[in-house]
Amino acid sequence: MKFYLISDNIDTLTGMRLVGIEGQVVHTRHDFLNLLKEKMQEKDIAIILVTTKLIELAPDVISEIKLKQPKPLITEIPDRHGESKIGEAIDGYVSEAIGVKL
């Protein structure tokens, strides 16, 4: 099983390649969703890493996939620009799921 990166910038892709993770750079929602669909069909990919900026292009689709698809795991990663609100997103998911604001 392996990782795969879908990134919006070459810097993140270069860094991941240094540790052996292959990937591709895309910039549009259409290209992102097509590549994601393609990579989700590959049996040897267990985890797809996606930069925050791309997640923000299609949050509805990503949420649906995370709820309904057991594999591969789609994980949001911040890029070099920071500004990630992953912790807030997790709080929101938990609050919505259990009905208690954290």
From TrEMBL:
Keywords: Ion transport, Transport. One of its GO terms (molecular function) is proton-transporting ATPase activity, rotational mechanism. It comes from the Bacteria. Belongs to the V-ATPase F subunit family. This is ATP synthase subunit F. It comes from Sharpea porci.
